Amino acid sequence: MKKFEYVIKEPVGIHARPASLLVKEASKFKSNIIIFRDEENANVKRLMSLMALGIKCSETVKFEVEGEDEEIAAEQMEKFCQLNL
Amino acid sequence: MEKYEGKAVFGGIAIGKIKVFQKEEIVVKRKHIEDVEFEKQRFEDAKSEAMKQLSELYLKAVKDVGKAGADIFEVHQMMLDDLDYLEYIYQLIENQNVNVEYAVAMAGDNFSSIFSMMDDEYMKARAVDVKDISERLIHILSNGKGMSKLEEPSIILAEDLTPSETVQMDKEKILAFVTVKGSANSHTAILARMMNIPALIGINIKIDDLLSGKKAIVNGNTGTFYIEPDDETLSENMKQQEIEAEKKRLLETLKGKESITKAGRKVKLYANIGSISDLGSVLKNDAEGIGLFRSEFLYLGRNSLPTEEEQFEVYKRVVETMAGKKVIIRTMDIGADKQADYLNLEEEENPALGYRAIRICLDRPSLFKVQLRAILRASVYGNIGIMYPMVISEEEVDQIIEIVEEVKKELLDADIHIGEVEQGIMIETPAAVMISDKLAKKMDFFSIGTNDLTQYTLAIDRQNPKLDKIYKPHHDAILRMIQMVVDNAHREGCWVGICGELGADTSLTEKFVEMGVDELSVAPALVLTVRDVIRNLI
Questions:
Q1: CATH number for A58
Q2: Where is the PEP-utilising enzyme mobile domain (chain B) (predicted)?
Q3: Fewer CB under 10 Å: which end of chain A, C or N?
Q4: Do B313 and A83 touch (CB under 8 A)?
């Protein structure tokens, strides 16, 4: 399993648009990708659960990536976050 | 005449006939079904039809209101494909043998209530989106017909409007939106802003078809909705509407024009921004550059310092968006009065006169260097100026220059490209004014921060409302200081701007031009107003 942390910089937080971009990106990989904000978590491939977390700007989230392509998936997801969130 | 007060989410005045918009009520009944596979197939068919409609709506919305307003239909498509949503529906059909319409309606209720219970206003408003996709599916399943066409330009009056409903309306024929529900974040509000038409929410009226066709006024400046207005109200609003239209028309014609006086003196007219989201407004109002980019937002509301990479991405995006136009980035202007706990700033009696801005940066050069590296790296993508706040002495400027040179060398040694950058200081302390002749020798430009300069010069705390009466930014002391700065700067080939609130004060524009001020940086929404004044100067 690969893990990384990220601080959200997108001023509006993970709203509809950023969330849908994130889901699209996560869906490219076979691995199971979970996002944690404190105790709460959501499957990053599921838009409604992700939006329902209501993650705001400057909050720290953790990603856990597990599966056959976890190396590349974690790397790409982190890159994606830096560019888009 | 009936009069209702609500909340305006976009200003302006519309006068016309009301068109009541009521949802076609489709009653969904729970039915027991035997053929689960058949029911699932019905769902799949309805879903692909809904997908098709949504991509058509997306294209229509792009054409009508632009990409930003159309994005929501892409989000709808993704919601419709969301595994949580689909599993919920499938499980109801499979485990409880219910008809698909019922399952879809339940899914809509369930997910929209999750959103409406969230404590974030924006997310609350998303409940409507989930409802919207369920309603679309139910509509398709029951072969419902689309909404009726608008016969004439109308004021749309509704309980609430979903994005699909609003986008299907003929934009040319919508004069205003008035809704009972809705929020400042609702799509109606966003759409109104994009279409530039007045919109009111929270109008407490009983929606009745009989209201259709009645004459009404929507005043988005006061938040008032009049039905069958009397003559006096009508003529008053018409007059106001005319003045606004004329003003808007005039300002629109100024886009793409130079900010130049009749005598041919050009003034650089830039905009102030406090976050990335202001960029749209900068472009829309045709600012000639960014005269003050407050970089503080990168530091506030978080638990750790922003990294070089994070800052670089933001600066790069701004300069790329401005496509070669000047972008002046002010380095971190934070003191004990701003929330940034990770900086461990001690509480002070008087933060305005305290450990802040460049004082922190020079005391903690490692922190300063991160920002400078990010700015310098972004400089290859456009035209950057760096501006240092709260400077009071030559020594500080020397230290700044030394650190900047160090950072440049480090970057060059690492084979990282940097562009040409101008450097300047904010003139906001009386000390900086008095030694501006010396400072000008070391810098490329000055930008006068009139808010702080007034506070420090008149010794008036801006936070104390009791002193509002004597807080006079037009004070002769301030105006003389500006003149002194301009004269000293020009003698050394340094240009001077004003980025405080005074810069947008059109009663002083003429005076500033006479004084020789080279640049004015104002709120994006005021750019065209100031340009208008400049172009009318002799």
A1: 3.30.1340.10
A2: 151-223
A3: N
A4: yes
